[in-house]
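Subject: two folds for Thursday's group meeting

Dear M.,

Sorry for the delay on this. The cluster queue was jammed most of the week, so I only got both jobs back this morning. I'm pasting them in the order they finished. Each block is the input sequence followed by the predicted structure tokens. Could you check whether the formatting survives your parser before we put anything on slides? The first protein is the one we discussed after the seminar.
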Amino acid sequence: MGSDFPDQEALSGRVYDALAPAIDKATTSRSTADPAPEILIDDTLATKAP
């Protein structure tokens, strides 16, 4: 990867691992009145990261 983001592969793996279960649980709409599936990504931390 580029020198600007030396850990980009590790970080992208962590994001994938965090999102995959939510994506797997998403279902298709059963009717046109059903809302589209949503996944909310909250990148704020309750406590400061070390």
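Second protein, same layout:
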Amino acid sequence: MRNKKNSPQYLDALAATALDELRSDLEKALDTLQRINARLAEIDEAIRSLQPKRHGAIVMERYGCEGHGVLGCVGCPHVRWVQWLDLSRQEENHKPKARQYRDEAPEQRPGLARKTWNAYLREHPLRYLRRTGPFEAIHRDIETLIKEAQTLLQEKSKLLNSIGNFRRSFRQMKFSQP
């Protein structure tokens, strides 16, 4: 006499349930990733609205992988922190290398010198957050937003590591056609 737990119908139902749970877990992970990305976009907009481009401003820069030949990256958009510095306000001998952006030509801005803006990558943005001058009134708000973004980025990193481990282990399996 055959046990009900060993019947093919029961085993097929167990396999189907396990696949449904796996699919559900992956959908939850991707939904969480979308929620994190949406909140990071809101934080980016909030930081940029609180502190427009000025000397010393720390902003979040979001970028994609498509320029590097990678398609289908689950982690896009990626985030890096940059600090805007106006080189015309710094000493001549203290100009480290960075990406440079120029304001419009001096002819379009009569009476003003051309400004050279550099965006410096900052791994730890809270260390470089300005607290005086024009930033005095807003530095607490910016600090709160940066801390929230860093927490979300840590959560995103853990989630992406789990998804990556799953994808790598799945790819290493050798499947034979039944």
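Two things I noticed about the second structure. The chain is about 45% helix and 15% strand. The chain has one domain: 32-158.

Cheers,
T.
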